[in-house]
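Case study.
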Amino acid sequence: MKIGAISKATGLGIHTIRFYEKKGLIHRAKKDDSGHRVYNSKDVELLNWIACMKNSGMPLSRIENYAHAFYSDNNLASLNILEDHLNKLYQQQADLQHYIDVTSEKVARLKKS
Amino acid sequence: MKIGAISKATGLGIHTIRFYEKKGLIHRAKKDDSGHRVYNSKDVELLNWIACMKNSGMPLSRIENYAHAFYSDNNLASLNILEDHLNKLYQQQADLQHYIDVTSEKVARLKKS
DNA sequence: TAACTACCTAGACCATACTCTAGGTCAAGA
DNA sequence: TCTTGACCTAGAGTATGGTCTAGGTAGTTA
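After joint prediction, the assembly is written out as follows.
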């Protein structure tokens, strides 16, 4: 699987994947005889997780921690990071609920006036 | 009320408030005899809303639309923007729930292994 | 063989949203 | 009067996260 294929599989752009590699977010991919990057299903799995975490607002610096744990096959470390992430998502959920409440209230007030 | 006071009142930095003014997000403030910006309670209200919308992920370009409606005292326009914003918040809520589900599942799986 | 496509590298460029600096004014307190 | 602190302007610098360009290689297709 080359970069174009994994790009399609994960929804991340080719430039973005190379950018993540350059940043150290993902490991330097193995290259085939032509010097083209080669990916496997584990890479797809990781990049899909990266996309998921990114979309839920995790900064790349934190995603990098998760990626390191993922590569080290250190389930405990991965678990810690994911639980931490989950807590952040719950916090986000609470904040979001607050913004929804405040905004709904304002909408209701405007509708009455 | 000068810029330092409104900064404390809204939690936005002094530089940030001047930056918002420069961007056209908020109106150019009136100046006193010393050339210092003067704010009133309506400005506090708007800046608090801006902070709220910003924290819930609205880009400044969209916040600007709301600010224009706010200044024009056009309740209908404000209402439209706020309802639109509310819909985006609900969408965010659904997305967030999805990320929570997926992450919880992964956490549960890791705990079993 | 020529064109076409996907890939490569290094590095420039972009958008967003600040954040700070330099150099200066002004009013009040010691 | 001198110093301190809050303010001013214009513009430079920073952080994040991409996105694109130039110039080139390699394999496949007409």
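Observations recorded in class. Residues 13, 15-16, 19, 23, 33-36, 54, 59-61 of chain B lie near DNA strand C (CB under 10 Å from a C1'). DSSP finds five helices and two strands in chain B. We will return to this complex in the next lecture.
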